[in-house]
Amino acid sequence: MKNGVMLQAFEWNTEGGGTFYRRIGEKAARLAEAGITALWLPPAFKGQTSLDVGYGTYDLYDLGEFNQKEETRTKYGTKQEYLDCIRILKDHGLEVYADVVLNHKAGADGKELFKVVEVNPMNRSEEIRGPFDIEGWTKFTFPGRGTRYSDFQWNFNHFSGVDYDDLAKRNGIFKILGDNKDWSKDVSGEMGNFDYLMFADVNTEHPDVRDELKRWSDWYIAETGVDGFRMDAVKHISADFMRDFVNYVKSRQGDQFYFVGEYWKTDDSETDRYLYQTDYDIDIFDVKLHFHLMEASQRGADYDLRRIFDNTVVQEHPGLAVTFVDNHDSQPGQSLESWVGEWFKPLAYALILLRKDGYPCVFAGDYWGINGDPNRPGFQAEIEKLIRIRRHFVFGDQEERFDDPNLIGWIHHGTEDNPGKLATLICTADEDRTMRIELGADWAGKKFADFSGNRDDKIILDENGGGDFPVSARSYSAWAEDGHPLQLRDE
Ligand code: CA
User: Fold this and answer.
1) Which of 211, 291, 344, 366 is the most buried (most CB within 10 A)?
2) Mean pLDDT of residues grouped by 10 in the chain (491 residues)?
3) 46-47 and 170-176 as β-strands: parallel, antiparallel, unpaired?
């Protein structure tokens, strides 16, 4: 979507109790007005408990409809509330992406006896014990749902590994044995082979599993009307399966059906390979850029801003990158904690929202704040200001001025339909700085103002349309022609 902006509508501590869908529905008009164009909603399936954030998925067909795991609703509400929420969002012109967890299943209904080999947790391609029998939690019969929507029941043949032996009451990583069974080969090579992440690892090599997951996608999309899938933990799922799954869904829904994968890796040769393996049909989150933003926030003036986009997904594959600052896993206390420092957040959002490349994703924890953390109240007004600037000015050629380790800038030259010019400056120096910018003689005598509101001064361009544009220490500025209706609206 042209200059679209995605919102990850939840964070790890998002209030539970089944109120989420209602609250998001009530915000739909406000979000559309703010320039958000799509929402990524949390996993809607019944998890192992009704407190589950959604990644401990139990039943892909229970969206808060069946009395399973002690409750009908999920953390976020009932299925009807989910469907109502999606309808309201779509009525306001917003797209909706579902969070889809296919790597594993949790909270099995029963255990089974089967043969395994135990592998080295640090190198899963190294077998350290066995074969021997264990009892694992792999039987999923969904007693609360029965055969409604699908009569598929899961057993150990449909999984490739578990991490608990109920016979010996022992933790470990146990690879399940069977005909032609092994870890998927085309997963991340981290830990020797990173097919196994957690819970009962779904064996996507099994033809019945592949068929069932495809059938499920038809059901889910027909039932909910979502516009896309955010695929969880794809580094742990066979790339060939993902390519096949994406092809299948697009063949049924059309090419516009949106996919973004969570491939949590900063090694650009590995992410390059993944994009190739999945036929460039799926966007991925720009994890490398996230870590560059974090590092810049930690090192301040010692960080070389000229390198901030080096080897990132958005630089290497501009049309396939979802740029983001933080998410529910990187927030404080979570499994992939790598939080971008608060002082740098506005600069980080300028670095994703005021660029022509990448599909920026705003994080609920940065927008509304982290629930229960008064030190992290969020940057809603700042982010909305940046989105307004994006929608009016981020058009046409983007001229880069990455000359100084503590001061970078870029200029948008506009188009016929959006003729304004915008000069964005990012400064990590400990003192105010200026950048000399020439916009051409046509712009001689024009007055420029900082639409970020960070600078009150105005610049009158000289006879060449040039000026020394200021930016404050550890801050950003977004300079455009003074008196634009967008600016008047802000005042
Ligand atoms: Ca896996």
Assistant:
1) 366
2) 87 96 98 97 95 96 97 97 98 98 98 98 96 98 98 97 98 93 96 98 97 98 98 98 98 97 94 96 98 98 98 97 98 95 98 98 98 93 96 96 98 93 98 97 96 96 97 98 75 45
3) unpaired
- Ligand 1 centroid vs 189 CA: distance in angstroms? 12
* Eight-state DSSP code of residue 269: H
CA distance 16 to 378: 19
CATH topology of domain 105-206: Elongation Factor Tu (Ef-tu); domain 3 (2.40.30)
CATH class of 398-490: mainly beta
Ligand 1 center to residue 180 CA distance, Å? 16
Name which of 6, 3, 4, 2 is nearest 327 in CA terms.
Answer: 6
d(CA 330, CA 333): 8
Please report, for residues 44, 54, 73, 107, 172, the alpha-carbon distance to residue 68 in angstroms, rounded to integers and kept in the order given: 14, 14, 9, 11, 28
pTM over 0.90: yes
Give me the catalytic one of 262, 286, 326, 450.
262
Residue 103 C-alpha to ligand 1 middle, in angstroms?
A: 5
Site of tokens 């069974």:
181
Q: How many CA atoms lie within 13 A of 81 on its CB side?
A: 21
Distance CA 471, CA 478 (A): 9
Q: Is 65 a catalytic residue?
A: no
- Ligand 1 centroid to 439 CA: how many Å? 52
* Ion ligand 1: residue ranges with CB closer than 5 A: 103, 195, 201, 236
Q: 89 C-alpha vs ligand 1 centroid, how far in Å?
A: 32
Contacts of 108 (CB under 8 A, 6+ apart): 137, 138, 139, 140, 154, 200
Which stretches of 106-199 are assigned E, i.e. beta strand?
A: 110-120, 123-139, 159-165, 170-176
User: What is the rounded CA–CA span in Å between residue 123 and residue 141?
Assistant: 32
Clarify whether 417 is annotated catalytic: no
How far apart CA 40 and CA 327 sit, in angstroms, is 11
| Distance of alpha carbon 82 from alpha carbon 25, whole angstroms | 9
The alpha carbon of 196 and the centre of ligand 1 are apart by a number of angstroms equal to 5
Distance, in Å, from the CA atom of 254 to the CA atom of 15, rounded to the nearest integer, reads 35
Q: Report which of 196, 19, 12 is spatially closest to residue 99, judged by C-alpha positions.
A: 12
The CATH number assigned to the domain with range 6-102+208-393 reads 3.20.20.80
Helix (H, G, I), strand (E, B) or coil at 350: helix
Boundaries of every domain in the chain: 6-102+208-393, 105-206, 398-490
432 C-alpha vs ligand 1 centroid, how far in Å?
50
Catalytic residue from among 95, 112, 205, 232: 232
DSSP 8-64: E---TT---TT-HHHHHHHHHHHHHHHT--EEEPPP-SEESSTT--SSSEEETT-SS
Tokens found for residue 38:
């799509």
How would you class 430 by CB atoms within 10 Å of its CB: exposed for 0-12, middle for 13-18, buried for 19 or more? exposed
